[in-house]
Amino acid sequence: MLIDKRGFSQVLIKTVQIDKAFERGYSVKKSIFFIVLLIVLAAFYKYGMKPVTVTAKNIQQSTNLIDIDLKIPVVSGMINQKIQGKINGQFEKDALDFRKKIEKLSVQGKQDADNSGFPFRKFDSTTAFEVAYNKNSLLSIPVEYYQFTGGAHGSTEKKPYNYDLKTGRVIALGDIFKEGYNYKEAINQEVKRQIKEKNDLYFTQPGMEFQTIKENQPFYFVDGGLTIYFAQYEIAPYAAGIPEFKLPFTLFGNNVKIKG
What we know:
Blueprint: H1 5-47, E1 53-62, E2 66-76, H2 81-116, E3 123-129, E4 133-135, E5 138-148, E6 155-164, E7 169-170, H3 183-197, E8 219-222, E9 225-229, E10 244-248
Parallel strand pairs: 2-3
Antiparallel strand pairs: 1-2, 3-5, 4-5, 5-6, 6-7, 8-9, 9-10
């Protein structure tokens, strides 16, 4: 059987051309895929991730010295597991450190009561939290740390956890506003205005009344704004609890760079 060399060469050339065309088509499709992927990721980064899931890890214990009831936030559903682990680690560390501190105080309290002949009342270590904001790559969870260590009543400290979920960075109050903007003065004026509306709830004596927010003023995000708050006894009697002031972002005009 004879083979026409010219015909064979033409068939070979056609085959190579088809293969190259296929490669070009595959390369174009691959390029389009990566372009679309980059666009999606850019939009994802700009407009924020979907809300993460926040559940509670419960730790309960009761001894003759102390009652313990810890509800610790647990974040799940984040793409970046390293950031998620860092956030969860901070929640748990703070709760367990708080428990350890009150346990140590309860041992000393029992010894003091026995030495003085007074009855001992069990100490208490309790934490609770709320998810104040969970949108637009921002997570805001204030956690309340309640302790009873004897005396007429217990005390509560509220600690804010405000995270940029894209970076894991903790957001401070000053981070929310554009550089050069006097946000402290704007907040001070609004807090004074709200205090004036309910003046009977707050300290009014010279030296005890509200004057200005602190550099590290605690706050948390809410829909359309933020809420700042003060410790018990800081600007009001114990009966007033933890005074809070909601501040809409509209209060600051166009000087806000991080909006919840």
